[in-house]
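Customer escalation, tier 2.

The customer says the design service returned an amino acid string that "doesn't look like it belongs to this structure." They asked us to rerun it and document both sides in this ticket. The original structure tokens are below, unchanged.
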């Protein structure tokens, strides 16, 4: 039943027997037309931990469940953490360890486009987290149905907007698409004194795109198109609701905008023309707030923003638009341009502020002695279709790590993209600083600490990171999930 191996010949040789029967469903399909702003935004529940000593303990079960994502779509089966799409929110505090027991009750096989395929076992990765290798959700440590694993998160890192998601071998794209992603926030008690909006006014917005079948189910395809572009939807959802509206009070809100889409980048603007005030990126707060009329988010990047609704009259409606080709245009029409709508409502007291100085910043020390590594991002065409490579290799769990880094060292990693596609590069464990994009030196403090950065088409990026805290093997990969599943991933190893 293996019609199309996702990982190329080298990988095929070592893949377990019960491997993906492929999901080459052919024709793409289009979602039924769905009216925007019909359903209210949902805010995923924040789970309450059980205390075990100092440790906050959670149990989360991955399982199939029903979800309704738009007024005019039937309820459909999703795969969710605790059966929710997206998963519940975890709110951790810096310095307080969290253990999450992830239980898998996902099915063994999956019916898609009329053929049955074997599902790879899930592994859960906390994206952006500084954790030991055994807690990093490596696909080699995946969970068979009915089993669990305790993932230990020390939360000894900056306050940040993280997310957890499936990282199964060769099927991360399919699993995440069907719902396996959720928000994980680390609050830093020191940030409390800044006076940023909090509580009910601090809200995660997880943006995804999907194609729906007429029965409401999510249409996932790995075909010749999506092997190229990654799985792109034709309809945008926020927190699992198609183009929702959200009633806001006339005051400031903090939104943790998370792009959890398989392959789509967003170019977000407010149709009022007002800027977002960006206060944080992937790895936590920026040194200074930045007013931005356009917020660009590649897959799995995050933008922490404040929007002030106090200047608007009650009844004002503000649309969050996604405009790639019409940046700055007053009215973007066309598919995929509406993300959500804010409906300004009653006045509210607001003692929150956005201070001019949010956090301290130090450039990583880089000099002529700094180790510089180069990674070539490229493609190969096989009998089964396109596969994606780093330094000529596709991912294989049995490969030795592509590079070994000495614990504690700062290194420069340069990604050279020889393809015409954007590759959002993600490195596990560390947050990096951006040094250079296409030869143009960057001020890293403007980008903030990042864990995903786009290697532009036929271009290059250079980042710097300190590899510290743990030794062992970690992944780095393209975070276009189909590129990742089709080989554009490798292990690196931190050695003592
Ligand atoms: Cu967001 Cu390797 O993952
Ligand atoms: Cu990650
Ligand atoms: Cu890619």
């Amino acid at each position: 039943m293996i019609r199309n191996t996702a990982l190329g010949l080298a990988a095929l040789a070592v893949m377990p027997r019960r491997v993906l029967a492929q999901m080459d469903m052919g024709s793409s399909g289009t979602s039924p037309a769905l009216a925007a702003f019909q359903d209210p935004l949902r805010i995923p529940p924040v789970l309450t931990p059980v205390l075990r000593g100092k440790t906050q303990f959670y149990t989360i079960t991955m399982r199939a469940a029903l979800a309704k994502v738009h007024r005019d779509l039937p309820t459909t089966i999703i795969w969710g953490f605790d059966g929710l799409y997206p998963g519940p929110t975890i709110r951790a505090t810096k310095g307080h360890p969290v253990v999450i027991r992830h239980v898998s009750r996902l099915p063994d096989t999956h019916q898609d486009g009329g053929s049955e395929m074997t599902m790879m076992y899930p592994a859960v990765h906390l994206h952006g987290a500084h954790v030991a290798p055994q807690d990093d959700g490596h696909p080699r440590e995946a969970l068979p149905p009915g089993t669990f694993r305790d993932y230990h998160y020390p939360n000894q890192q900056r306050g940040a907007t993280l997310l957890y998601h499936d990282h199964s071998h060769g099927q991360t794209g399919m699993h995440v698409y069907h719902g396996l992603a959720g928000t994980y926030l680390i609050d830093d008690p020191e940030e409390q004194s800044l006076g940023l909006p909090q509580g009910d006014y601090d809200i995660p917005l997880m943006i995804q795109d999907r194609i729906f079948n007429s029965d409401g189910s999510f249409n996932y395809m790995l075909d010749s198109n999506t092997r190229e572009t990654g799985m792109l939807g034709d309809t945008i959802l926020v927190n699992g609701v198609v183009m929702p509206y959200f009633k806001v009070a006339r005051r400031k809100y903090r939104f943790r905008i998370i792009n959890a889409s398989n392959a789509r980048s967003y170019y977000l603007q407010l149709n009022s023309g007002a800027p977002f005030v960006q206060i944080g990126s992937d790895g936590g707060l920026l040194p200074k707030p930045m007013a931005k009329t356009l917020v660009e988010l590649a897959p799995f990047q995050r933008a922490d923003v404040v929007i002030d609704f106090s200047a608007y009259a009650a009844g004002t409606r503000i649309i969050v638009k996604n405009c790639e080709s019409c940046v700055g245009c007053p009215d973007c029409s066309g598919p995929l341009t509406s993300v959500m709508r804010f409906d300004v409502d009653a006045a509210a007291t607001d003692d929150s502020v956005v201070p001019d100085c949010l956090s301290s910043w130090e450039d990583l020390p880089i000099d002529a002695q700094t180790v510089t590594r180069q990674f070539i991002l490229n493609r190969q065409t096989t009998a089964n279709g396109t596969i994606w490579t780093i330094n000529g290799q596709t991912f294989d769990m049995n490969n030795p790590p592509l590079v070994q880094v000495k614990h504690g060292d700062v290194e420069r990693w340069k990604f050279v993209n020889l393809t015409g596609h954007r590759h959002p590069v993600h490195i596990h464990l560390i947050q990096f600083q951006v040094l250079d994009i296409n030869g143009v030196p960057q001020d890293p403090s403007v980008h903030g600490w990042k864990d995903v950065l786009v290697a532009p088409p036929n271009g290059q990026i250079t980042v710097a990171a300190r590899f510290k805290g743990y030794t062992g093997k970690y992944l780095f990969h393209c975070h276009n999930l189909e590129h990742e599943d089709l080989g554009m991933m490798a292990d690196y190893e931190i050695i003592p």
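Tier 2 assessment: The sequence is consistent with the input. Residues 125, 127, 426, 428 surround copper (II) ion (ligand 2) (CB under 6 Å). The chain has three domains: 6-22+361-495, 50-189, 199-347. Sent an explanation to the customer and offered a walkthrough call.
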